[in-house]
């Protein structure tokens, strides 16, 4: 296996500006929190460079400053440490190669262990007088001849990793494992040369065999955990048919660019984001919306990479390169979430940082205690010390958090819920108050103009100024108008209030009645409204919007979990009151500015509450940023999505409660994993130091603790969290 990659990674780098760049790559041989610490610390030593590693997904995110080509120096440094780096598209190839390497090592160690056990049975069943000293020594030599080459070959997964990090002045969990195997084998060979009694080649091979079983099973379990990300990435690979005149030409997906025309046959994945220009069909949009009902597609319909064309051939004009597609963005969100560090991850990292000096000191102390104080021969004292080195490996502690995180992230992603930060679920689990915005959150956010017979000049004026806003009511006004737009000067939007502009030197306002100073100009009813004021005229536009289908049930489910519900809106009191009564929400406030919403959240936080804020508009962005945890629908404006920790897709509100239930279960599983890992060490270390555990049992216990933690994490998929 080569450890130094010669590939040019600079072509895969994403640049934030001329000097700042980042890239997400695959990294191999990451087995524990110590491995993560080695990689991250190695780049922390470089000027203006940092790394974040997720052990479960084996993803490495590097951020750095300087020329783009600097990435090759950084990746070479990591590869030199024994952690080969690859582009994401080759991760499956690397996984298959490493799995085959582990299986070969496992098979050979099993073969050698079986043969040595046959020799050991003969040695154990008779003493030297019965067997004869010469025969006993001959069997010991057979053990050495069979055992040493197989130990050297099958121990490579541990030896290579340990040697690479030691050469760089670092350490990881493979160092004490390798040290234990080498000490046991060296001592046994010395005993063979001296015709001694303490021959442990069979134990060393059994140790390797069972450690490899644990590592192989853990490797496969973690691969299953990152299956969701793999499935997404697989949809970003492959080929597309591009229409060029009267011909079709094949391109790889990463070669697609804006304005290319791709032809997608029935049953094929849509290769890039774009717009249908010919054909009609139905599209399975569940990947990006979470909805299982197909969406009708015709000329002008926007479609997304990774979704499936179900019925007939479509021609699609590409709008974005594959790297900038919505699917790529979803994968990036998953990666960011997986690589972010929650409080539990930070605790595990600190424990792993203390592991090496403490365990090596404990192993040496154990050896000196038994050898010098208790008067034991150095050979059995050394075996006890070796057992301590093996049994105290912190694999289970390192796996306690990331496996749950990636399983939860994948589980939610399949349901149209995207985590943007690694501590989102941790923060969501703590909430005591859930605050909801109204328009676009509790309601669908697609209001329809219902005011009859509006004069054309009023409609033109209102639609022209509304075209400068992304507010749902403004967009509804624009959608209803068919005609030419007027030109305005100095258009400015005031969040929570409305729009202001100049037309022929006169001030025009479009927004709520308070903003337009029209408090008594129209009866207060429960309809959504916009007020247009210009040239001393006040015109009202009324809209209708519908609640999300499951809004009542979701609010009730939160209440059943003892979460206090608040409805905060910038809309009129009569409208908000009507919605609140329909949803059985007792605490609600209306006609709030963004600043007033923030102040309410700050007050609640000062009282000790943990706040969830759910909103979608420009006026919600400050509140989303102020709350402990923020959730936005995928229809939200960009600034709201940027402030959110979680984004949900589709027209249902249930994903919010699903995320909450997953956060509760994840918290329980992570705590259980910590208790299992810590309890294992508290129980195992004293027994190992006392000499009651053999290296073989130590290997079984260490591998078993990691597998138990991993399997416990998979319980997340066996529970009805929704």
List strands and helices in order, with pairings.
Elements: E1 14-15, E2 20-27, H1 33-44, E3 49-54, E4 59-65, H2 70-80, E5 85-86, H3 91-125, H4 128-131, H5 133-154, H6 156-167, H7 174-193, H8 201-225, H9 227-234, E6 239-244, E7 247-252, E8 261-264, E9 274-278, E10 281-284, H10 286-289, E11 295-297, E12 302-303, E13 308-309, E14 314-318, H11 326-339, H12 343-373, H13 378-391, H14 395-399, H15 402-413, E15 417-419, H16 424-429, E16 433-436, H17 438-442, E17 448-449, H18 456-466, H19 472-480, E18 489-494, E19 498-503, E20 506-511, E21 528-534, E22 537-544, H20 551-560, E23 564-568, H21 573-583, E24 587-589, H22 594-606, E25 611-614, H23 621-626, E26 629-633, H24 638-643, E27 646-648, H25 654-689, H26 695-713
Parallel strand pairs: 16-23, 16-25, 23-24, 25-26, 26-27
Antiparallel strand pairs: 1-2, 2-4, 2-5, 3-4, 6-7, 6-8, 8-14, 9-12, 9-14, 10-11, 10-13, 15-27, 17-22, 18-19, 19-20, 20-21, 21-22
Helix pairs in contact: 1-12, 3-5, 3-8, 5-7, 5-8, 6-7, 7-8, 7-13, 8-26, 12-13, 13-25, 13-26, 15-25, 18-19, 25-26
Structure description:
With 722 residues, the chain is of the alpha+beta class. Helices cover 50% and strands 17% of the residues. The strands form 5 sheets. The chain has a 7-stranded mixed beta sheet with strand order 15-27-26-25-16-23-24, with helices on both faces. Strands 7-6-8-14-9-12 form a 6-stranded antiparallel beta sheet, with no helix packed on it. Helix 3 (91-125) runs antiparallel to helix 8 and helix 15 (402-413) packs antiparallel against helix 25 (654-689). The longest helix is centred in the C-terminal third of the chain and has 36 residues, at 654-689.
């Amino acid at each position: 296996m080569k450890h130094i990659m010669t590939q040019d990674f600079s072509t895969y780098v994403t640049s934030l500006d001329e000097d700042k760049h980042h890239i997400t790559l695959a990294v191999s041989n990451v087995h524990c929190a110590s491995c993560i610490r080695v990689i991250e610390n190695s780049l922390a030593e470089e000027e203006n460079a940092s790394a974040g590693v997720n052990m479960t997904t084996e993803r490495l995110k590097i951020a750095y400053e300087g020329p783009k080509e600097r990435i090759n120096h950084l990746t070479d440094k990591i590869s030199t440490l024994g952690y080969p780096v690859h582009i994401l598209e080759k991760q499956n190839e690397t996984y298959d190669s490493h799995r085959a390497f582990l299986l070969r090592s496992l098979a050979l160690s099993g073969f050698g262990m079986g043969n040595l056990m046959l020799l050991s049975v003969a040695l154990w069943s008779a003493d030297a007088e019965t067997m004869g000293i010469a025969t006993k020594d001959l069997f010991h030599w057979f053990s050495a001849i069979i055992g040493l080459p197989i130990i050297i070959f099958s121990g490579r997964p541990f030896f290579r990793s340990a040697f690479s990090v030691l050469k760089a002045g670092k350490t990881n969990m493979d160092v004490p494992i390798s040290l234990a195997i080498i000490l046991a084998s060296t001592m046994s060979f010395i005993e063979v040369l001296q015709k001694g009694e303490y021959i442990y080649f069979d134990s060393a091979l059994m140790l390797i065999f069972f450690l490899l079983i644990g590592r192989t099973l853990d490797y496969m379990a973690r691969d299953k955990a990152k299956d969701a990300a793999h499935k997404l990435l697989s949809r970003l690979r492959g080929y597309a048919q591009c229409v060029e005149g009267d011909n079709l030409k094949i391109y790889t997906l990463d070669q697609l660019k804006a304005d290319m025309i791709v032809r997608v046959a029935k049953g094929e994945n849509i290769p890039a984001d774009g717009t249908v220009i010919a054909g009609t069909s139905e599209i399975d949009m569940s990947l990006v919306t979470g909805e299982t009902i197909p969406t009708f597609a015709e000329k002008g319909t926007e479609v997304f990479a990774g979704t499936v064309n179900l019925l007939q051939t479509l021609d699609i004009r590409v709008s974005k390169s594959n790297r900038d597609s919505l699917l790529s963005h979803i994968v990036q969100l998953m990666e960011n979430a997986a690589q972010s560090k929650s409080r539990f991850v930070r605790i595990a990292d600190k424990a792993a940082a203390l592991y090496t000096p403490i365990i090596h000191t404990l192993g040496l102390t154990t050896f000196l205690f038994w050898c010098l104080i208790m008067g034991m021969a150095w050979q059995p004292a050394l075996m006890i010390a070796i057992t301590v080195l093996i049994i105290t490996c912190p694999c289970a502690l390192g796996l306690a958090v990331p496996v749950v995180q990636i399983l939860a992230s994948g589980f939610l992603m399949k349901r149209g819920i995207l985590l943007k930060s690694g501590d989102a679920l941790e923060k969501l689990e703590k909430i005591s108050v859930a605050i909801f915005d109204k328009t676009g959150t509790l309601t669908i956010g697609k209001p329809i103009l219902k005011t009859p017979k509006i004069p054309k000049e009023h409609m033109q004026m209102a639609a022209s100024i509304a075209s400068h806003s992304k507010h749902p009511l403004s967009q509804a006004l624009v959608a209803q108008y068919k005609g030419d737009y007027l030109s305005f000067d100095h258009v400015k939007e005031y969040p929570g209030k409305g729009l202001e502009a100049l037309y022929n030197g006169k001030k025009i306002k479009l927004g709520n009645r308070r903003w337009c100073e029209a408090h008594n100009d129209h009866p207060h009813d429960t309809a959504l409204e916009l007020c247009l004021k210009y040239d001393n005229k006040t015109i009202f536009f009324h809209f209708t919007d519908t609640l999300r289908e499951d809004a009542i049930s979701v609010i009730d489910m939160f209440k059943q979990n003892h979460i206090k519900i608040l409805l905060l809106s910038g809309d009129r009191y009569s409208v908000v009151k009507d919605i609140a009564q329909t949803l059985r929400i007792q605490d609600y406030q209306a006609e709030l500015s963004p600043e007033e919403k923030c102040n309410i959240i700050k007050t609640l936080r000062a009282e000790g509450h943990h706040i969830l804020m759910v909103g979608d508009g420009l006026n919600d962005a400050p509140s989303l940023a102020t709350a402990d945890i923020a959730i936005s629908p995928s229809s939200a404006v960009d600034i709201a999505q940027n402030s959110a920790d979680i984004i949900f897709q589709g027209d249902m509100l249930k994903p919010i409660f699903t995320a909450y239930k997953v956060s509760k279960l994840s918290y329980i599983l992570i705590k259980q994993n910590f208790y299992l890992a810590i309890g294992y060490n508290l129980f195992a270390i004293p027994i190992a130091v006392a000499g009651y555990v053999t290296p073989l049992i130590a290997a079984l216990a260490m591998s078993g603790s990691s597998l138990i933690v991993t399997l416990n994490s998979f319980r997340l998929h066996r529970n009805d969290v929704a």
